[in-house]
């Protein structure tokens, strides 16, 4: 009886917490003059699900970190003034030394002069689909009532927090910036660019990437590559679903990693850092949840996606 009462109290507390978070964010973006329809939709949906009943609330208990992630990335402008010196030419040179290509430059610059419509299509498609892969797997876990739903959502949130913190401590210009503005002191007024993804837009007769990058609040957030990190997180989280999932997700992660370089958005160093960040975020969340559920016998999974809690 006591545990049921405690659960009910905890559920009500969570409902009000989520409602206040949604309302607070909506008031904030309105006051700052940055309100967009996506903000209103996300905040109203969040508050609505909190009061819609047990099933929607169960989704929120795992999915709330997805909303937190969106707010974190959307409001990067708040702390851009705190970031350190932007790395431009030094990162370019380090990449060139560590991963030399045939003409002595960096691989992003090498591919910029060796494009092909087939590569433009597949690389552009993967660069657009990388985020939908994460949300698709999260929804699959939710509807299957899989215990990995909450684990994946919190790992995703932590991964993005790690990325944003790194952007502040080590702001880095993407390859397209150095190719356009040179390796000297950073031009902090430089607008975001779709870079190689503009070829996908032209090929498909759309403006998806032009609009997507026009809203990017932080040009100097190349290290680590979250484009490479997200598919890596999916590989870890879906590992236990079987061989076909492993092959498919690893292949997609490899395509996105190549695309990040081919489309001049990232160096190989950024991609490696993104993969490491994703693995670290998954490991940390896995360990934290295991410790929370069974402190005495907690063990960290040896394999990605391994449910040591089972």
Automatic annotation (TrEMBL):
Keywords, ordered alphabetically: Membrane, Transmembrane, Transmembrane helix
Domain spans labelled Inositolphosphotransferase Aur1/Ipt1: 109-283
SUPFAM superfamilies from the UniProt entry: Acid phosphatase/Vanadium-dependent haloperoxidase (SSF48317)
Intracellular or extracellular location(s): Membrane
Domain of life per record: Bacteria
PANTHER family for the chain: PA-PHOSPHATASE RELATED-FAMILY PROTEIN DDB_G0268928 (PTHR31310:SF7), PTHR31310
Name under which the protein is recorded: PAP2 family protein
